[in-house]
Design goal:
Rossmann fold; 462 residues; six-stranded mixed beta sheet; 10 strands
Length: 462
Amino acid sequence: MSATRFSPRIFWLILADAAILYGGVILAMYLRLGLSGSENELNAKNGWFKIGLASAVCILILYFYDLYDYVVMTNRRELLLRLVQALGIAWVLLALLFYFVPPLMIGRGVSVISVPLVLSLLLGWRISIHLLTGHPEIGEKILVVGTGQTALDTAEAVWERRDAGYRIAGFISENGAKPMDKLGRSIILGKGPDLEDVIRNEKIDRVVIAVRERRGAFPTEALLRMSLAGDVSIEECTSFFERITGKVHVDMLRPSWLIFAGRRRDSPVKLVVREMFHRVLALIGLVVSLPFAILTAILIKLESRGPIFYKQERVGKNGKIFNVIKFRSMKTDAEADGTPQWAVSGDARVTRIGKVIRKLRIDEVPQFWNILKGEMNFVGPRPERPHFVKQLATEISYYEHRHLVAPGLTGWAQIKYPYGASVSDAIQKLQYDLYYIKNQSLTLDMVIVFETVKTVLFGKGR
């Protein structure tokens, strides 16, 4: 999915796909059964509902195959491959559904015709969307005020997410850089005094401020005039970057921005509903995973001596220390010297069973108990060990702000950033954690849970 939570663009893309799927099956029905036969099937045999159900199954599988991710859409070969796989899986699932519930069957002849028809329509539609979103003349024109690293990072976020509907027109210099000099993939269009002329001549829609030092050459009066007149939208780079990428850039961050742009206080009802949501999910997870948990416990005991579970201190909400519970996936002497170590990819300390249960995330199953006890939520920043928290808090600004909310079994950082174990990885994950803390809501929690299910099923991430 795109970097942002669930953008209107994704919604409209899903809606368009649903219309194509629905219309494609109806067209296949008319081609197979003719006018009178199709009307009888649709009106007398609940055809409208059955086609809707089939379309919903297809949309769900398209989502699981990342076909609402712009990166996939840009590669036509990958797009075709995933569409074929997704529709194939969807039709197999529907065939099983029709077998066990015959009244829902659409018809074999209609299904055979609809598969290539829908595939062709979806492929043509997706390629058209890619060409439109990638066109240099389509999208809101952005002028970035600044030429430093912050400005470049802001522009890079737009260049990497062309589906977001923005395009960089250029930069305004505040540090003496000359107009028409190249910067990244664009150019410097002028200096501070040229701002209004550049906006008028280039037909700019939005100005993004990416300047930390706002004395001297900063065009305050011009920006104030245009803001009050409503001639152009003006936005801080921190908010703009957050919306485009789904994370908060720590190098752009100012305490004042967090204070004034922070999330609203939740009502007591919302808090209770979110707490119930997390606990119910944990209870369901505990029940569903019980057979796998029993099998895992047996395999761990058969492979090596030592306990089935292990407890490890982690930092929870407001810095409170608690013991997280996991299935043991490492050798019993993994930290024989008593010094905590980063867990790394391909860690030699991991047992054979440990590699499997880590890949499938079964090692995390006992943490459902931590959630039921109220020490964790289902969704939140992953809890870290006290030793590493002390280290990272001295090296990374705002790191301890992760502990303003309860830690989680899964989180925004886990679905957006690959597994890593270093200070630089911690910085990247913190940026996603800050985004989650600032935008925390039941809707975002549900998106994260859904993305986590997809990640587990396809064996991606950690």
